[in-house]
């Protein structure tokens, strides 16, 4: 179907399916860093000590698993706000997925180098950067889709869109702050990263629809979903 701007309308189904695959692979790769300690004799106490000594890797695994899981859930939420996709959005979404797929690497660095006090600040800072990158790409996806209501559903309330924009900008700002804080004090930087992850476990904003006007003919009306407001 021809788009008024000369492009081609596309369903979001393919981009969502591809994204789901990347999220699934990235979240699975995290487990590869949790390896059984090398066997040293048959001392059960020694094995237990080695297993418990991997706690930094366990912590990094859980934190990153939660983060990728949150991105996956919110990605599904975000694309339900889009009526269609185009080439520009596809490229920005690829950038987002690239940073998601990259996350297992800083996770490995954090888990491996946390026990070393000398390298711990660098490991935490690098991990914070690893969390900042997909957040910035997420904002880019949103701003591109929202510009002149290019791809978002036309029936969505403008106030709701503004609130989401401010929320996503705030997320980038706070993660950038976490990187800066980690450079100064890695403990507070790590605390910020952990706190933000816990904060994002909260459910996203319920979409709000405006009362006036009909959606353009080329935009399919958004389905009413459980828990979604059509006020």
UniProtKB/TrEMBL annotation:
It is found in: Membrane. It comes from the Bacteria. Pfam families: TMEM175. This is DUF1211 domain-containing membrane protein. GO terms for cellular component: membrane. It is a multi-pass membrane protein. Keywords: Ion channel, Ion transport, Membrane, Potassium, Potassium channel, Potassium transport, Transmembrane, Transmembrane helix, Transport. Belongs to the TMEM175 family. It catalyses: K(+)(in) = K(+)(out). The chain crosses the membrane at residues 21-38, 58-79, 91-110, 122-144, 164-182. One of its GO terms (molecular function) is proton channel activity.
């Amino acid at each position: 179907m021809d788009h008024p701007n000369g492009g081609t309308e596309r369903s979001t189904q393919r981009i969502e399916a591809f994204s789901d695959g990347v999220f699934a692979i990235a979240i699975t790769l995290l487990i590869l860093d949790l390896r059984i300690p090398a066997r040293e004799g048959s001392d059960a106490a020694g094995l237990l000590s080695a297993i418990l000594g991997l706690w930094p890797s366990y912590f990094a695994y859980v934190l990153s698993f939660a983060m990728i899981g949150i991105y996956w859930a919110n990605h599904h939420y975000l694309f339900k706000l889009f009526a269609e996709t185009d080439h520009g959005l596809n490229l920005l979404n690829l950038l987002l997925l690239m940073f998601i797929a990259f996350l297992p690497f800083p996770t490995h660095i954090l888990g491996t180098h946390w026990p070393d006090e000398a390298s711990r600040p660098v490991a935490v800072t690098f991990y914070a950067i690893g969390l900042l990158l997909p957040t910035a790409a997420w904002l880019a996806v949103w701003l591109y889709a929202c510009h002149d209501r290019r791809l978002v559903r036309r029936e969505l309330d403008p106030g709701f869109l503004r609130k989401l924009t401010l929320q996503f900008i705030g997320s980038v700002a706070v993660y950038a702050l976490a990187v800066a804080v980690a450079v100064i004090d890695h403990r507070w930087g790590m605390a910020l990263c952990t706190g933000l992850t816990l904060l994002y476990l909260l459910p996203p904003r319920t979409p709000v629809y405006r009362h006036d006007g009909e959606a353009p003919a080329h935009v399919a009306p958004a389905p009413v979903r459980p828990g979604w407001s059509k006020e």
